[in-house]
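Per reviewer request, we include the raw input and output of the structure prediction for the construct analysed in the revised manuscript.
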Amino acid sequence: MNDGHKQCYLVLDESGAMHLKNERYFIIGGYLTTNINKVKSCHKKIEKEVLTIKKIDFHNHRELKSSNITPKQQATFINDLLKINEVIGVSITIDKYQLDNFKASENLAYNYFVKNLINYLLNCNIPILNEAYNIVLLLDNRSTAVKSANDLETFLNLEFVYSLSYEKKFIVKYLDSKKNREIQMADYIANALWKSYNFTGHKIIYHLDMDLFKLIKQSKFPFKTFGINPPKFKIDKKTK
């Protein structure tokens, strides 16, 4: 029995790479929702508009990733997604400059960062998360975590359900972003945050509804030293 409560989806994608040295920040971002069908419908509507502008056949096209649409088009996807009542944008931003002594494999680090994001969200008193009877994580099957597909689900349930007696169960599913609109929406959010952190003044900022964008629940890691001190490398802001 779930007493009428809904299942909550945490849809995540990553932007940037843990191992690259020419960017300071790595992002895991996306959204929470209890209405995944409304998210898919929102994406389908905007996709049709973008494909019409690009003069591409709607029935024969590739995935519209953030890398092959304009900043304005990407912002339209994000703005309309965040207008949905049952959607809350979320992210964790990792300051790689502060991780010199953080020795972990990429997969272990990814799982740890997702755990930190969830812990942060659980302390944000988000109604759609509080009222859910379980939490389903939907991840891109090309993500870092897929290298060990069962580890994240086991890890989260051990950390929250068994260690902390958290009442909700975690279920992790990996989806192909080419076929799943909900993952593509997470890509747009993660990528926009990556651009905003790594490339100050990136033009996508000028197309976003900042009143909505600022409502994204953003965790930062490591919290105490995030963003302090100049990076060891300089980013060419003209490259993106």
